[in-house]
Amino acid sequence: MDEVYDVIVLGTGLTECILSGLLSREGKKVLHMDRNDYYGGESASLNLTQLYRKFRPGQEPPAELGRDRDYNIDLIPKFIIASGELTKILVHTDVTRYMEFKQIAGSYVFRDGKISKVPSTEMEAVTSPLMGLFEKRRAKNFFSFLQTWKDDDVTTHQGVNLDKDSMKTVYEKFGLESGTQDFIGHAMALYLDD
Question: Least buried of 29, 97, 148, 157, by fewest C-beta within 10 Å?
Fold first, then answer.
């Protein structure tokens, strides 16, 4: 590799890929490298062998799990708002030639030793094992509050000041258990930490 490059980009996370694409579009000669045997950095999608290599080094996946290509496990969720700025950047850089956009079919969480579907309809919410009956009622009241919120109508605020109150205070106002708070923050709002 005795070629000359204008820029060398290390890592293949989303930020590095966008940077590499933008620089290439501007006519720069870019060398894009990653130390892993897969692209995507911490937001990669791994097949079964790659997943075992990353999280269970030295172990092979059990044969009964099937073929590698039957698995595509995201290390972190990757949601892009269809009309957002990121979509415009991806289209501008022609990165979309290498991407496939899909509508979300389902989202799952690991909780209490089980994998459970994140409810996306009222019927799924009623039958979901993620919350008990009373907690479901409190969560319904919380979601109704969110749906009826209007910035310019203080009667919809129910005494909550989003400029001053923390989300913890809002959760407590509706009596939501810590597990539900965690579920809403991480599985629905996609926050990585508290």
Answer: 97
